[in-house]
Write a structure and sequence with these properties.
With about 350 residues, the chain is α+β, with helices and mostly antiparallel strands. The longest helix is centred in the first third of the chain and has 19 residues, at about 85-105. About 35% of the residues lie in helices and about 15% in strands.
Length: about 350
């Protein structure tokens, strides 16, 4: 395991994107968001994905000269067309738009089409926090790994949701979850590290547990809560995909195996202004009280503490800001090869 600082990681990601023609300002935005994913512990959605993004750019699967724009505008509601840009740029644009519209209208729902994989959901749900807003983000996953409940054809994806709620003295509540037991990125990172995955994440098409991530193509992910997780995945896909004119179901392109086709990824972001409902200071103090009451709950045997959503990610962030972001040897070697192929300076290490 090697370690890098946030600054080293950002700089490397920026250099790689610029080497394939992404404008510097765009490269800086994407690098900032990808490094943010890693420092928060979303290892399957940060620099781990860099080679994949670069490959799609090199195969014309992503548009570097995109025109991200508003396709439909109804005031508090709008539809953004990402023009097949890097997903992080599309969602950064959409989230800024949502916050601006929520400042005016109290709430804003921005749908997105013609986007791409944009990293972990929490990145965008957390952005409205800086304006004392609640953020809600949903995406259609970039590959189908889940069949409808009782079926075997993979027609659904992890279709994640993230919700971020501001607090006062306590850290914000940040829920970031897939509608499957585990996100597929965790399966991919386990495979790269040569690790097994826990029983209950995946099964094969005969219903047997699948714990070898290198055999992931032989099975599928399991939904959270059985049919309830299937229902959530279906509904989120309709709201983030079908409603926006984006891909969903059979139309989803597997970006893990296809680096040339346009994915038409769908997402949406909601920004909700707290002051439209309550005094902001009072609300945030009340959230503090809720957090503390949860954490003070008597513990079951085997639990060291009661946590709230986002707490573990914050602990990881504090550790990584102090000691560096861990980069597994296999990933380090892959990034070294990438730098060499792009004729750019390799990733600096601590």
């Amino acid at each position: 395991m090697q370690f890098v600082s946030v600054e080293q990681l950002e700089s490397f990601i920026r250099r790689c994107f610029m080497a394939v023609g992404l404008p510097e300002s765009d490269a800086e935005t994407v690098a900032m968001l990808m490094a943010e994913a890693d420092v928060n512990g979303s290892d399957g959605h940060g620099v781990f994905r860099l080679s994949q993004y670069i490959e799609r750019i090199q195969n014309d699967g992503i548009n570097l000269q995109s025109n991200i724009h508003i396709a439909e505008d109804k005031g508090a509601m709008a539809l953004v067309d990402g023009d097949n840009a890097v997903g992080h740029l599309v969602m950064h644009y959409a989230t800024e738009l949502a916050m601006n519209r929520a400042s005016e209208h109290g709430v804003s729902w921005i749908g997105v089409r013609h986007s791409n994989h944009a990293g972990p959901a929490a990145l965008y749900a957390k952005m409205p926090l800086k304006k004392d807003m609640i953020g809600i983000y949903v995406a259609v996953g970039s590959a189908n790994h889940l069949p409808p409940w009782g079926g075997t054809e993979m027609l659904l994806s992890t279709n994640p949701i993230a919700v971020a709620i501001p607090a006062n003295e306590e850290p914000p509540i940040v829920l970031d979850m897939a509608t499957t037991v585990a996100a597929y990125g965790k399966v991919k990172t386990a495979a790269q590290r040569g690790e097994s995955i826990p029983e209950g994440w995946m099964i094969d098409k005969l219903g047997n547990p699948l714990t070898d991530p290198s055999r992931a193509s032989e099975g599928f992910l399991l939904p959270i809560g059985g049919p309830k997780g299937y229902g959530l995945s279906l509904v989120f896909g309709l709201l983030a995909g079908t409603l926006n004119g984006a891909a969903f179901g059979k139309n989803v392109i597997d970006f893990n195996s296809d680096s040339t086709s346009f994915t038409n990824t769908g997402q949406f972001i909601i920004a909700l202004s707290v002051e439209s409902f309550s005094d902001v200071s009072l609300f945030k103090r009340n959230v503090d009280e809720v957090i503390r009451s949860m954490q003070a709950s008597p513990k079951l045997p085997g639990f060291d503490k009661v946590r709230v959503p986002g707490e573990r990610s914050l602990e990881i962030r504090r550790q990584r800001e102090q000691s560096g972001i861990p980069i597994p040897d296999a990933l380090c070697e892959a990034l070294s090869r990438l730098a060499s192929s792009l004729k750019t300076e390799p990733l600096g290490l601590l």
